[in-house]
Each structure stands twice: as C-alpha cells, then as structure tokens.
What we know:
Blueprint (H helix, E strand, L loop, with lengths): L4 H6 L28 E6 L15 E7 L11 E6 L8 E5 L7 E2 L9 E2 L3 E2 L4 E8 L4 E7 L4 E7 L6 E8 L7 E14 L4 E11 L5 E7 L5 E3 L15 E9 L2 E8 L4 E5 L8 E7 L11 E9 L2 E8 L6 E7 L1
Antiparallel strand pairs: 1-22, 2-3, 3-4, 4-5, 6-7, 8-9, 9-10, 10-11, 12-13, 13-14, 14-15, 16-17, 17-18, 18-19, 20-21, 21-22
InterPro entries: Glyco_hydro_beta-prop_sf, TAT_signal
Keywords: Signal
Protein name: Secreted protein
Amino acid sequence: MTIDRRTLFRAGAGLGLGLAATSLAPGVASAGPAGFPTYRYVRTAFDKSALRYNPTNELIFPTIRGTVGRVSGALGRFYLYYAPHDAPGGICLAYGDSLEGPFTEYPANPIVSRDWAPHYSVSHVSSAHVLWNTAAKEMWLYFHGENTTTRLARSKDGIHFTYDKVVLSTSMLPAGTTETSYARVFEHKIASRGANYVMVFMTNTTANKRNIGWGWSADGRDWTFSQTPLVKASEVGATDAAAPSLAYRNGTTYVVFHTNLGTMHLTEVGNDFTRKVHLGVFHTPLSGAPDRGRSAAPSFGTENGVEYMFYEAGARLEGAIAIARAV
C-alpha cells in the first residue's frame, strides 16, 4: 500500500525522494540535496492517446493513494487521480495493482466534473489531491475550479464523492491575490497552532508572480492561511513557483515545488514551518520524452520497500503522467 511520507519517517524507514538528472549514466545513482535519493523515470502511467476521457490531450497533477486496508472492494491496490487542466477539466481516476504501472482508466471518468449542482458551475475543475484522512477513514479530495477557489469533497470508496465546502479562496489572502490553486494537504501536527493538517498551494497576484503559500487546520475543513508566502520564486532564482508537495527526512520537513525553469526545487521549512533553507535543484527533468525539459507536481508512494514518484511530465498543456522509481 502507499504510505504517507510522515508515516515513513516516524517508522524509521529513512526513505527520501528525488529524481535522476539527465546527466546520469544508466544504472548510476546520485544522492540529491539533504541526502534524498535519486529517482529515475520508468514509464508513463498509461497511454493518454487511448483514454476514453481526454478532452484536451493534456493531463496534470497526479496523486497516488493505496487502497489496501482502506477501501473495501477496491478496483486495484492503488488509485491514481489526475485531471486535464484546461476547460472542461474533470477529476479522473485510474487504478492498478503495482506502482510500476500500467494503470487502467476508470470507465466513468470524470468522477467530478465542472458542474455540480447546486454547489458550483465553473469553466473547469482540476488539480486533484486526495488525502487518506485517518480520523475520518475517508478519501478527501481537494481540487480547484476556478483557479481562485479550492474545494473539498469526501468519499468512502475513493470513487463516489460527496461535496463538502470551499476551503481556500483568493478572498482569504491579501488584496491583489488572483489565484489560489494546486493545493496539497497532509496530516501534520503543529502544536503551537493547534494544527493536525497543513496545506501547501500556489498563489498568483496582479503582478503575475506565482509563489508558494501555506495554511493549517485542526480538522482539514476550516483553515487559517499565512498572509505571506512560504517560498518566493525569486528566492531560488525563478519568476514562478507552483505545485508544492511535502517531504520528510532527517527529522525535519521540506517542501518540493517546480519553477518556470522546468526544474523542481527543495526547501527545508522545518516541522513548525519557521525555517527557510533553500537546498537547490531537487529534480532536473529529462530533455527528451516524456519530460521534454519540464517536470512538476510530484506525488510519492512506496511498494515493497521501493519508493516511487508520480509526476506531471512535459510542457504545460501537453503533459502526461509519468512514474519514476528510486535508484
């Protein structure tokens, strides 16, 4: 089953994450920043040209989740969530029995569409992040639509979702904020804030500069958000930063995010999110297929002690879902 990164660390597994740089020869391992291991591209999760639901031929923002011990009668041992970005978008599901893939498309995609009466009707929904909520024993889906709004839906089986509420919008951040999207939520305690969950996400402003924001919550539904960025793109030599995720190693917490340069970067933020130590490039994308100079939005899992990273590969609006394995 897929294990949450926090669980891995607490169990003393000592496992990290990273991705092979294109300069590495086949079979050669190289440690990443902060001792994170290297990951190497394996395959795309599925052939997107063969999908039944593929309205725009571009797919983004994968989330991989294990079903064993969580979902009764699951279609496979792993559920992979993804979406097109451009209209009409639509939250999609694929399933498989190995993190090596391939994955099979759920035949009734999208499982969440851009129209959900009476809750919303928008141009698109996208950026599906699914959290296994241990307390609720449910799959909690956080997704955006429009880019100004992040919403929550909940499910017992990981397929059929019940709408819950808006959890993040531009109105919750300073004036001039134009986007709050690409959110990922993690079970993470910060005692000083009464937090059991943290959220990391992308912000944009009227200056058209994208940075990484964050917030905290006791229950995963009602949130408090920092009014200043967790990480600014300019701090790592970029103009835009987006699609953050969290990683745990060395007794501390890191945020992984991609930039307009095509690379992923790693910043230590500490367990209470009070540190800011930029550690450089976390992943250099492949120059050839499927990355073609850009990789983004990582989601991590483990199977039989082997770590995997699912990521968005390829130029924006041309992306595919790719799988990489720890060397």
